[in-house]
Amino acid sequence: MHELSIAMGIVEAAMDEAKQRNVQVIAVHLRLGALSGVVKDALLFSYEAACQDTPLQGSRLVIEEVPVAVFCPQCREKRVLESVQSFTCPDCASPIGEVLQGKELEVYALEVEE
Amino acid sequence: MSEPRLVEVRRNVLKHNDVIARALRDQFRSAGVFVVSLVSSPGSGKTTFLEKTLTQLQPRYRVAALVGDLATENDAARLARSKAPVKQITTGTLCHLEAAMVQKALEDWDLHQLDFLFIENVGNLVCPSSYDLGEDLRLVLMSVTEGEDKPQKYPTIFNSADVAVITKNELAGAVEFDWDAARKSIESVRPGMQIFRLSAKTGEGMPDYLDFLSQRLAEQRSVVHG
Predict the structure, then answer these.
(1) Is B188 within 8 Å of chain A by CB?
(2) Are A6 and B13 inside 8 Å of each other by CB?
(3) Engineering a disulfide at B143: which of A37, B127, B152, B168 sits with its beta carbon 3.0 to 4.6 angstroms away?
(4) What is the distance in angstroms between the Cα of B85 and the nearest Cα belonging to chain A?
(5) Is A13 exposed, middle or buried (0-12, 13-18, 19+ CB in 10 A)?
(6) What is the pLDDT of residue B218?
(7) What percent of chain A lies above the pLDDT cut of 90?
(8) Is B2 a member of any domain?
(9) Residue of higher predicted confidence among B112 and B91
């Protein structure tokens, strides 16, 4: 369980960005990849604790889950995997190694007020 | 007060770790040391495997190890029997190693004096997957006693690793280990992954794995030095 330290990293990053812009954060929008190694529910739970006694206290964490996308060399197309337990092309069933997306752990936007 | 608005920031949460990991990787490359990190669940035989690796590489190579553990320094004591330089990183309650801990542990080491550096992560198949340590090769270890479907239960760590080692092969018969099922399980989460099946205890299968490491070191040096 490393979600608390990840949550603290999110709060720190958001605080830093908010300070630069001189704004108050209402919500933090996060992109969370299926291969990030981070569990959504544990992160939501930890976020509240990480916000305690910071300018972000009371803010929301909005998580956008990013599925794993791969490049299928047979189809020559980007394909979205149905499950991280099966790295095969959902269309032609070829095994696939190259991951294009799904490792994201990124604060991509802040919902703010002046 | 104005209406709330959305501002794009695009900031990687693990940026701090990634920056240090990149600096470490540069440092390793310029020193010519090949760095292997080991991840596995607790009790899979990581320390025995590492002790044998250090001992058997030593006649030909200069080797050292960092070992991460929650509390005790027992692992470092065991590995010290190999006579290789070993340092323990005690993480306290933290379930994984981070790049900054590796950087700190290496402060007083001269990396130019090494061919191989091994970093044994805390026994955990979940958390270490998120943290780049600047290693050249991430090795995931599982033992035949753990069940063939371990890779599918922990796809993220298998997917983040470069090579898999299945150890305690001397017990395979006793636990009716199904090699094909294990291979398929790895293949389903990391197609094409190289797998070594061995016994650290009897030495069976170790030469192939050690040759593979030698080859990777040679390849890396030929790339770095043209």
Answers:
(1) yes
(2) yes
(3) B168
(4) 30
(5) buried
(6) 95
(7) 89
(8) no
(9) B112
- Cβ of A26 within 8 Å of Cβ of B4? The answer is yes
For B23-59, how does the pLDDT look when each residue is reduced to its tens digit (9 = 90+)?
999 999 999 999 999 999 998 999 999 999 999 999 9
- Strand segments (E) across B107-210: 116-120, 137-143, 163-167, 194-197
Q: Which two tokens stand for residue B59?
A: 């006649």
On whether any CB of chain A is under 8 Å from the CB of B93, the answer is no
In 10 A of CB B211, how many CB atoms?
10
pLDDT at B1: 57
Q: Across the interface, do B5 and A84 touch by the CB < 8 Å criterion? A: no
Say which CATH topology domain A3-113 has.
hypothetical protein PF0899 fold (3.30.2320)
**How far is residue A18's CA from residue A28's CA, in Å, rounded to a whole number?**
11
Q: Are B168 and B143 in contact (CB under 8 A)?
A: yes
Q: What is the pTM of this model?
A: 0.91
Give the mean pLDDT of B207-215: 98
Per-residue pLDDT at B127: 86
* B11–A107 CB contact, under 8 Å: yes
Instruction: Please report, for chain A, the start and end positions of each structural domain, with discontinuous segments joined by +.
Output: 3-113
A to B CB pairs, distance under 8 Å:
106
Establish if B7 belongs to a structural domain: no
Nearest to B10 among A35, A37, A106 (CB): A106
Q: Name the residue range of residue B128's domain.
A: 15-218
